[in-house]
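=== RUN LOG ===
request id: a7f3
mode: sequence -> structure
chains: 1
length: 273
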Amino acid sequence: MLAWRALFTYLGLAALAVSCGCAFVPKSQLTALESQNRALVEKNQAQDARIQNLDTHSRNVEDQLMRAEEDLAILDEQLGLDRKQLVNYEAERDELHTQVMGLIRGCSAPAPEVRGRLAEISEQYPSLQFDPCTGVSKADTDVLFDMGRAELKPGADDLLRDLVRLLNSPEGRDLKVLVVGHTDDRLIAGQPVREKYPNNFHLSAQRALAVSDALGRLGLEPERMGVAGFGPHQPVAPNLTGEDRVKNRRVELFVMAPEVPVVGWTESTPTLY
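=== RESULT ===
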């Protein structure tokens, strides 16, 4: 800007000098200044044109960025919808798979909401093995019995108390429990014990009763329980070692949905009554 002002001042003085007859500015110098002025004007015009081009390009880039952000928002919304659809498709697939497996295995799965609740409960309690086909959860317990005895070992109440708390929770209020007793294959030794338990069927049933009594004492309603004894006829180990026989002296707890059919349970088999 100062260069422009100096140039114009110089040219003005030169013109004044010429008009006044004072020829103190050589013509060659004046011509050079005029040429320099034209060059500066052309350079200024070129810079103005470049600035305009940059402004136009900047606006175009801003417009492209805005459109890209709008497209990204649309894609993100579509992705969210696609994820929801994928979750729904997976749920439908799992439901169909369960129904097909139920047909193959000859069982009738409980209602999806009941099955879902049982599955959630089994996830909270790893000792519960859930079968989605039948809607039954089997408790792998360490509630074992000594040989020829039907008294619960110390510490059994802790596990049973957790189970009762589960069954009395809002998620488990309508579930039922079938308590099944088992023995090993050894004959009952000793006259006093044989008088109390004539055979292993009596002993297995008494073991199931001991567990059901404990469940009732801990707060489970008796109408929600059933008891069965299988004696030595459903072993989980071959009864060849003392360790195997300990495994067979067990009580199993089956947590079931209301509609799971159990013979003798009138609510679950209404067509028989």
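=== NOTES ===
Residues 2-70 form one domain.
The CA atoms of residues 261 and 268 lie 5 Å apart.
=== END ===
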